């Protein structure tokens, strides 16, 4: 027989995104909720009936009532699918009030996997869940996946946590062994916790979060379509799900390069920009005029994006003899520019102090160009 399902995790519904401006915070929160419908569409398109969520469906142990009720309502709306929710470290079983509230409002097509006991998914297919008991359980909960099932059955483990190979002198308690699938006779092990898609072994995958929440992971946010057949290796197909792109372009510049053109080529274009969060931190060196042009381009680009942050502290400026004349030929402004230039080249100063002086000189040059007719 063939069994197919959609694997996802780490929806972190209700995440506050408190360090971002309110307008983008609201859109990011809404995108996480909307991921439920996108997961459902991906499951249907793949011909899967079941969606396995490997932990951290909720960002906190006490999500707002609206967050919880609307999430369960969205799953209930996708009534042709079955949703399996595993408690993770953010929404562990220690959050007893959370899971009591879920149980009170749980639709018929949603199953909470709160017990480490085999669950029948289909004839000859068993799910072996390892719900997280508390935020730091301190032991390997996936040992429960070794529970017996019928001979010849397809066995799927569903867990949440970190995996390392035990090559050091000491193993860490609570870490999932990388060979858990083999140890427990699993045909496939689906894990949550790591927010980027990653294959750990032939039959072990992190699906990653369906909606990215930071710049850490290079892989596109999505889910995994997993197809299993008795005696055959699993077939795993990544499916893009995310609405927002988190972009951190790698920009290393040298004098003579058009920094603005280089940057534009690395960024999303057109309507995609509204759903992109960008952090730009160029490195290298540019002539003072080139650095000022890049700074102006960054200012012009920023409103196109959902969120845009630039940091030029890693970009040094080469100062030509006549650059100071472009700021001012005399007077207090010229003396300030000369003082900053001297400080930026003073080997007796700490590197951070020299960098601050160089950045201040570059900013002064850019401001001088803005006020000139």
From TrEMBL:
Entry annotated with the keyword Cell membrane: no
Entry keyword annotation includes Nuclease: yes
InterPro entries the UniProt entry points to: Calcineurin-like_PHP (IPR004843), DNA_Repair-Maintenance_Comp (IPR050535), Metallo-depent_PP-like (IPR029052), UCP033093_metalloPase (IPR014577)
Keywords annotated in UniProt: Exonuclease, Hydrolase, Nuclease
Molecular function GO labels: exonuclease activity
Origin: domain of life: Bacteria
Limits of the Calcineurin-like phosphoesterase domain: 4-91
Source organism of the structure: Paracoccus sanguinis
Protein name, UniProt field: DNA repair exonuclease SbcCD nuclease subunit
Pfam families assigned to the protein according to its UniProt record, in alphabetical order: Metallophos
